[in-house]
Structures are given as structure tokens and as C-alpha cells.
Amino acid sequence: MKIFRLIIVTLTLLILVGSASAQGNVAFRIGERLSYTVSLERFPNVAHIETSVSSRGTISGRDVIELQGKVKTFDIVSATFPLIDESRIVLIDPTSGLPVLINRTIRSTVVPKEVVSNFLTTPTTNFELLSLIYKAREAGGNGSFPFSENGENYVATFAAGRLDKLGGKVRTDAGEFDTTPTIIQSTYLDLFGIKNFRLDLSNDQFRIPVRLRFDTAKGSFTALLASVSVDAPPVPTDPTLVAQPQPTSQPTPRAATTPRPVPTPTPFIDNQPLLREVKFVLGETLDYRVMQGSQAIGTLRLAAKERKQVESADSLLLSATVLQVLPGNRAFGAADSLITRVNPDTLAPQSAEFRLSQGLATLSQRLSVHGATGAIAFGAGTADAPVGTHTILSLIYAMRSFHLQASKTNSAPVNDTRVAVFWRDKPYIFVLRPAAPDSITMEGKPIPAQLVAITTGVPELDALQLKVWLSLDDSRIPLRFIAGTYQADLTSASIIAP
Question: Is the pLDDT of residue 438 over 80?
């Protein structure tokens, strides 16, 4: 997980340098804002990235340029793409191109973490990822340069590619660009299994990164420019950063472009098959017998019911409903249900409705998720959340595609999977700790299974010592759930066509 987190952060920081322009040797287009879409193989929009050149001013009497960027993503696709919610502010000396101050804010932990690197009193002679790429651009995409990242020193080598082989025209949602490719090599990339790192820069005076690609053992990543805008310079984020007047210039005339023809939209087809990577099929129906101690109190059903277009979005309906309530049941009622609509490819929630009674009545609510930012609207307001934050129900389905392997040593649980999950009024980081494959006994028969223990950071949930057993076959069906004195065992699995 740490390796792939560094992969995506590296991708993001390399994109950040797109905020620099090529007006003179060292100049920036203040107010430029870029956004990117990131895909992993067949999975689109697995990350949301924004960058900007916020201001130019002084700090402690030194002239600096302020760059900003942020990235949000989610933990899905077999846990290949880890949860990230991070922003970074970098102040750069406009003459040397070296960093003066770096401020990172990491929000993918329960308590946000801030990391500051200050070079005001002791200047550094190494670049960091953002200033490194800008220096290479200033050198025409060729040369070797020292840089530091995460406290370690490296050297990166850049070599401009041939247009007829790797570059040429690149079409994105932001338009069509003539580009020049650059090949990047470094032991820093080798450490994380990154190969064939290519960065396509536009051939105009702004030299915007239009496309970035690299390969890993888990698949190929591509970041494409989605939008470009230039706003009036905002008020500096850092109160010590005093903005300086910017010279005015006449806008560069642009040739009129022929409007791109708008294709006729393909009609949406209901209930298309799901990707193999999600581990279940449309119509899968799972029934469970619920026990409280030694007493049976009812039956529940989990179902991937239908795939339709809802509010112009492709949407998969997941449900958990009550089939039967037996005497003595004070936990749930006959009409109780959990409904979550998710992206069919990533299982990221789009909306949810929980109708609960009895002891769970306080958990009833409706949720609406903003797909691009991750913000979750609920009854009491809106909560900022990482993109792809799950509900309890979507997590049950998503964990089946996670790459869950037990750690070799209990004292170093490096294979724990961390997932953002919304509970009541805010997101928490749930930790899934897988055990070694084993078996459980159900109706007197041993069944191969893997235990996954879940800690949540929510006292009322952690007191229940949540556990799930997943089957060891390719479907990874949840065979048993335990929450405190309650236990739900699978009794039947079937396919009910929508």
C-alpha cells in the first residue's frame, strides 16, 4: 500500500509542475489552474487532481512563487489504488528554481498530518519533484539533476523523445495539443516499480503537461489534462506571503478553431454485466441467518439488484433487506433496509438511504455524494470526505475485490488495508487486517475462508470487534459476519435476474 501511495503522490507532484509557463527562463503564469483525470487500465476517473499557480510575492524578504495542488482518490480495484487525500503548497525561488518552503497536508488519516520543510535559513541544493521537472523543462527536457524526496537523495535523467515516435498530437477533454515527449529515468522510480515514465508537454509557450503515463506490475496509469483556466491572482494562502504587482501584457492572439463535432450519445442499456474485477455478478442474492448468542432472531438478504441510469450516471443498486423477524428480535424491524447506489466499475457510492428501526433507528439517514470532490451531504449538513468514501454496505461488496494477504509478522502488519467509510456524520478510516487463509465450520462442515478483522476508530463499533469471513474462491463471498453478540451466517446464494 505504501508503494502505491508513493506512486500516485509522485504522479500528482509531477503534474503540479504543469502550472509553470515558458515565458523567459524562469516565469510563471499566475492564476493558472489545471485539472486532470487519472485512469488505471480500464478503470476511469480513479483520482481527482487539481493544480494552480496561486501567487507571487515575498517571504522573509525573498521573492517566491507559490504553487498549490491537491489529489483525492479511493481504495478500490483490488486495493491497487490506495486512499489519498493530500494537498501541497510549494514556494520556489524564481531565480534558481529551488524550493524555499514545502507544506504538505495529509488528510487520509484520522487526524490530519502537516509536514513542513523550511529552507529559508539553510538553502537546499537539491530540487524536489515539482521544481525538478521545471528545471528539466528550462533545460529543454534534457539533463541530469539531483533531487530529494521523503528525506532521501536521488538523481533524475531526462531525455527528449522523437515526435514521430512518442509525441505528436494528443487529444483530451481540454482540447487537442501538439506535444513533445520526455522520457524520465531515476532510481527513485525504480524503487517503486515504475517503468516507462513518459511526460508529454505542449509545444506552445506555456509547455503544459498534457499527458503523463507509466507502467507498474498492477497496470498502466494515465493522467490526461481535463481543463485549463487562468484566473485573477487570488489572495496568497500564506499571510507572510505579500503579493507583488504583476506586469500586464497583451493576450497572445489565438487562431479561430473549428468547433469539434458533437457525437450522438449512445443509448444507455440497463443491467449490463459487471466487470470481473468486482468479484460478483449482477443479480447476486445472498441470504443470511442472524443469531444473537444461541437464539435465531431473523434473516437478512444482500443483493446486487439492478444497474440503471440514475440522474445521467451509470448506477448499481446494492441493498440489504430484512426477510424475516423472529420473536425476541430487538435489533431490527421487518421493514428495515440499507440501500446504496454505487459506480458499477469502482463501487464508489453515489447516494444511500438507510431505513432502520428498533435498536438501530438512530442510524437512519439519507446521503448524497459529490463524485468529483467526495463531499457527502446528509440530514445535518455536508461533510468533506475523500473521493470514494464508502458506506458500510458498499464496503461489504468492495472488500471482496481488495488484495487481502496476511502479514508475515504480526508486529509488522504491512498488508493492512485502509478504507474511508462514512459513519453517522463524518468519514473514518477503517482498517482491514486479514488473517492467513484457513476454514470455518458452518452446519457441521469446514469451509475454506479468510478472516478479516475490522477496526474503525469509532468506539461504539470497535467495542463490537467486527469480523468478516470471506470465501477463498474467486467470488470472495462473505460467509459470516460477527458484531458483538450478533452473528450472521450465509444460508443460500443465488442469482435473481433484474
Answer: yes
| Global model pTM greater than 0.90 | no
Phi-psi region of 95 (alpha: psi -120 to 50; beta: other; left: phi over 0): alpha
Reduced to 3 states (helix: H, G, I; strand: E, B; else coil), residue 140 is coil
Domains of the chain: 2-237 (2.50.20), 276-495 (2.50.20)
Distance (Å) of CA 328 to CA 296, 334, 482, 497? 9, 13, 19, 34
End-to-end CA distance of the chain: 36
Q: How confident is the model at residue 290 (pLDDT cuts 50, 70, 90)?
A: very high
397 contacts: CB under 8 Å, gap ≥ 6: 278, 280, 304, 318, 342, 347
Please give the Cα distance from 145 to 184 (Å, whole number).
Answer: 11
**Residue 161: its pLDDT value, please?**
65
- Secondary structure of residue 15 in the 3-state scheme: helix
85's CB contacts (< 8 A; 6+ apart) are 71, 72, 73, 106, 107, 108, 374, 386, 387, 420
Q: Which residue has the cell 496568497?
A: 236
H or E stretch covering 191: helix 187-191
Q: What is the dihedral of CA 230, 233, 235, 240, to 10 degrees?
A: 120
210 CB contacts (<8 Å, ≥6 apart)?
170, 172, 174, 177, 179, 200, 201, 202, 224, 225
Dihedrals phi, psi of 107, to nearest 5 degrees: -110, 5
Has residue 310 got a pLDDT over 60?
yes
Residues 6 or more apart whose CB falls under 8 angstroms from that of 125 comprise: 98, 146
- Report the share of the chain in percent with pLDDT over 70: 79
How do residues 366-413 score in pLDDT, each as one tens digit?
999 987 677 899 987 899 887 778 999 999 999 998 878 776 666 555
